[in-house]
Amino acid sequence: MEIVSSIKPVSAIAVSLVAALLILLTGERSRNLREAWTILAAVLKFGIVVSMVPSILDNKILEYTLVSISPGLLIQFKVDALGLFFGITASFLWIITSFYSIGYMRSLKEHAQTRFFMCFAVALSATMGVAFSANMFTTFLFYEIITICTFPLVAHKETPEAIKGARRYITYLLGTSVAFQLVAVILTYNIAGTLDFSNQGILNEAAEKVGNTFVTVIFVLYMAGIAKAAMMPFHSWLPAAMVAPTPVSALLHAVAVVKTGVFVVVKVVLHIFGINLLRELGLGTALAYFASFTIVVASIVALKQDNLKRRLAYSTISQLSYVILGVALLTASSITGSVMHIVLHAFGKITLFFTAGAIYVAAHKTNISELDGIGKEMPFTMTAFTLGALSMIGIPPLGGFLSKWYIGTGAIEAGQLPIVLVLITSTILNACYFLPIVYAAFFKAPSGIHHAASHAPAEPFTVKSGTHENLDILAVPLMVSSSGTPSLCAESHNKNPRANSGTLSAPQAAKDENGGIHEAPPLMLGPLMLTATAALVLFFYPSVFLNLARLVVAGVTGGN
Questions:
Q1: Rounded to an integer, what distance in angstroms lies between the CA atom of residue 68 and that of residue 412?
Q2: Whole-number CA gyration radius for the chain
Q3: Where are the domains of the chain?
């Protein structure tokens, strides 16, 4: 492959850092300007990332060295097919999440919005840094920045529960990365003399110097040190972090944090150790069975959750272990499925959390047991949820089927029939924790009036007059993101004492008391239906992402 020097990787990282500074300087003086910086940076970042696609598809690699600390130790960026795949996913979803966040924060009159948008921007810069890292040193640096700048987002509500969840969040992520991942990085550098990613694996040749046992120890240190991947037993930080506002949950699950974790696992497997070394040591098979354990157990735990956000959290723990499972099987098909699942899960899960916030603001519902009959009041929203659920289950013609198909094919190619049984079991469990929600929403009698008016006396705040209009800005990204796979969840109860309260206007309250459909206005519903249709289109036309995934496979298997 031809290596081309380019400033584009650094530009993609820097644009949201500049935006973070502008957001901080603007502050509360002009909310519109502050939020305009967020949107502008998101669009520019995505444009820069997309501009690199032709070069990568032309078998070129874009490279830029920022700082040379010592021989073999650089802060360097290199855009290859895998990094671009992740970069496209994260940068596009940041645009959607930015619009959603503005609508959400304004509708609920959240406090500390400047801090929120600033930390969000820094988190996306760090995510791009991980995506485009040329070596493990640069990866580790930006991995840690993500942890630090998302801590205030998890603790945003500043309630005792939020502070407790944020402490667990940073203890798990920072503790494991320093105690295990950093040690593994240092050992890798001492053994190989470099941390630059290689398609054959940095340790592939160096392993002969230190022996198989030592290499196995390093592998275990890496896996234990990447807690962002939420593989058991290092998973409990993720459900605890669900105390955060819905846009933060979307960031954790679909855009930055957990996706960064599984992305780094893929990089370590393919470019630190390499396929041949892992096959020789049997470490790929061991990792596949650890991932399988997480897939099944997390799905069982999800069945017991009544709170929708917690159920979705355990769903994420299970679903993202598919990425680890696929790459651990070390076949062309399974690696393709692993990479594809990064984007297919991202669109589906972010729509689940977007819908969570919309449902919470409009209906103040957080638990599955409260959603009986809500499909009659919100038929379009629950139809979108149904499509998203089917995609997570892996039923065609929804996008989620594709990644599971490739992983299953890879398991057969690897002769791992027990893994095929794990996939079947997981699919059944997915159906068991998603489909009852669909059934209850559409076929059970309403347990009570679902809209916000009925909750005004009991909630810390209620929806103000004009809220349905304000939700338009929140709805647009909800619909666009569903192009990956749309779905639903409910927002955790906002216990922030600073949230302003209000009541529905008399005409709106009267309308609600009469029952009927309580969907968002056409500006929300139109894009929602379009993106629900796009979920089907992604199943039939996944060529851009598949081409990038195949380039990844070709690079690590010697296909190029």
A1: 45
A2: 23
A3: 275-496+503-560
